[in-house]
Amino acid sequence: MLRRPLGQIFALLAACAALPAVLLLAFGEIEVMPPMWVHFYGVGVSALVATAAAVVLTSVGARERDARTVIVGGGFALMAALLAIHGLVTPGMLVGPNGLIALTGAATLPVGGIVLSFAALPRFTGPLAIRRILAVEAAIGVVVVAVSTVGAAVPRLVPEMPDPKSPAAIATFVLGIAVYGALAVRAMHTFLLTRRFADFTVVVGIVLLAAALYGALFLYFTELGWWMGHVFELAGIVVVGASLVL
Length: 246
Known about the structure:
mainly alpha; 8 helices
């Protein structure tokens, strides 16, 4: 297989990341406080719709014996589900004050990155691996539902999340960037080989998800960048899902 120079790949990825990075750095710390219903409907309900679409896409991939679609569709279904729970447990809407909103918000991108990274592992490639992929994704889904149910019913059981810019948040950011960076390099290499628009949209989607890490781990919910991160997450899920459909 033809290998592209890493310098070219990194330069193109930097170009793709320029706009979200500039937006976050220039406007991320502007103080904002939208009403809670914006978070509930804009994140929770939108992500719930995205979850349903991703589940359908995963089932189509399984029927077509396409392991890549099953991995990506399942990964984004889990991300969208966590983001949906994050929005639906907005305090003052369906439930009161709770730590589940922080837990699900913090888990969305790491969980998605781990599942998407399966595409690079030999044990999760090819039609014969589909049952294994579905089993792992289902197990993670069961954990998500169980933790969310317990967290909503007994809020005191949910552990406190690290503060933005704390050592734990920085470590999580570095790990997340490493995972999404590796995925982005792989996706960009694929695009340079195929020159297909659908493959380029995968690159854009992964870059948006990586940018969302900054908003989630370095900024507070009273800052514009935190809300922009949510937009980047939803956009990344939609863009990559659309690329699979194409």
